User: Fold this.
Amino acid sequence: MKKILGIGLCLLIAFSFSVSAGGRSSQGSTGQGPLVGISVPAASHGWVAAVAYFAEQRAKELGLNYRIVASANPNAQMGHIDDLINMKCHTIVLFPHNNEVEMAAQNILNAGIKLVNFDRKVEVNVTSYLAGDNPGIGVNGAHYIADKLGGRGDVVIMHVPGFGSIDVERVNGFTQTIRANYRNIRILNNYGSQVSSKEEGLKTMTDVLTAHSHIDGVYSMDDELSIGILQAIQDARRSDIKVITGGGGAQEYFNIMNTNRNIWIASALYSPAMIKDAVDVANRLIKGESVQKEIIIPAKIVDRDNVKDYLDAGSPY
Assistant:
């Protein structure tokens, strides 16, 4: 798994798109060569903001003729996809809001344009799909929690249904691994938050702690959610919880892994810099090279034992 490249937060802010009243924005070059379209959600989440930055950075490094567009919602993204199709792009890199844009994704292929699908999967026959190991995040989280609990205890699942396929894959990876390997670990329930944020994690976990007087472990599928979950545990002065996971690789989350020695705090890496690999795939397609149908980048667990290797004060996420 690649480490996130260090960059100043000011650079990320400088990159930010100016969103129009219609919820769409764009930025790009007017250089030579076939046009590459890059469609991403607007930066409502730290990880998403970093994806947009790294996509722009890699397109510039490769000297591509590109147009990158950020959309505030699925409807805006569908409109942007239509715009990119009309621009006669050679290849489009698509980081979809969710499966609502699947018809628009199919329109890309119908127009004879190559489609590189990044992260959230659309169920169409894309040219290439690239993502981190979402099922592996769940699998690794299950084994990690089981190890820290000695194979016995009560756990809850915290997730974000709005993440679409990646939410399903991470939750299924966890539940299937627990049920197949750890019969003495009981999943009490699963709880979905509207978005992945510290505030949502705090809100949802506060309700969870009220509903359950004893919890041994928390499987959370996102770092920012986990930060709020930890705050709720602290505010409730609960001492029963021994382990909590996450996913992504947020520096703020990394920096609290050593602050609470009573709880094992972990994250499964899922770097936003992976988008650079998707832009590389687009570049190879422009050159007429063959590409893999699916590229999955393995996850790795980070906790207090190895977090020092992943601290980066300059990271935008």
